Amino acid sequence: MAKKNLNEMSFLDHLEDLRWLLVRSTIAIIVMAILTYFISDYLFDTIIFGPTRPSFFTYVYMCELSHQLGFAESICITEMPFIIQNTEMEGQVNVFIWICLLAGFILAFPFILWEIWKFISPALYHNEKKNAKIFIFFSSLLFFMGVLFGYFIVIPMSVNFVATFTVSSVVLNQFTLDSYIGMVKTSVIASGLFFEMPIIIYFLTKLGLVNPKFLRDYRKYAIVLVLIIAAIVTPPDVVSQTIVAIPMLLIYEASIFLSVLVHKKENQS
């Protein structure tokens, strides 16, 4: 049966489209999660638990950077004074499933975006519908950049901070598997979605919900919030906080720039 036009679709028709969007997206995530099962050893040993080792790329690079900036060994990491332990009967099984699903979601993200585009495309103009490939490409690129930012920057900085912070030498750090995996999931997904801000701002500006003036007026609050986040997830040194804060501030500025372009185009039409 031919697909109905937007004006011919009832509320139930929209709900039916949304239901199939969720069904197809869920199937894609599960399929990709199943595929990650075959590389689960590499996924856990090298990727998930990589930031718990002093030889991790970020720690080595930060150490080299500290030498170049004349900070000597101030940022170099030689050991991780903590262990990760499982305290629940089904703990490792649950972690295995959730990490595979997380990996499945990340890998299936371009397909999910394609499904979202198909869902919203009936409400777009004809010339806007032709931009599907551009939308999918840049949205996916920003998301993957955010995931890499979360993995190579946010997670190592967070692990380094909590591993070295102590209230007393009497207390030993023995983190639970759930707490570590929870931090990994939150850091990666939150960073990936944060990097989608320019795309979100694009659509919010087209809908008239935000404008460049609003974003500029709240820039100072955004800067403060970013600096607070950077201070929380990094060790107490300026270099680490700057490395985390600058990309986040650039994303916000890019969102303002994109909002300006969209706002001008909407006013001219």
From TrEMBL:
A GO term, aspect molecular function: proton motive force dependent protein transmembrane transporter activity
GO cellular component terms, A-Z: TAT protein transport complex
Keywords attached to this entry: Cell membrane, Membrane, Protein transport, Translocation, Transmembrane, Transmembrane helix, Transport
UniProt membrane topology term: Multi-pass membrane protein
A GO biological process held by the record: protein transport by the Tat complex
NCBIfam families: tatC (TIGR00945)
Record's function text: Part of the twin-arginine translocation (Tat) system that transports large folded proteins containing a characteristic twin-arginine motif in their signal peptide across membranes.
HAMAP family named among the record's database cross-references: TatC
Protein name from the UniProt record: Sec-independent protein translocase protein TatC
Lineage of producing organism: Bacteria, Pseudomonadati, Bacteroidota, Flavobacteriia, Flavobacteriales
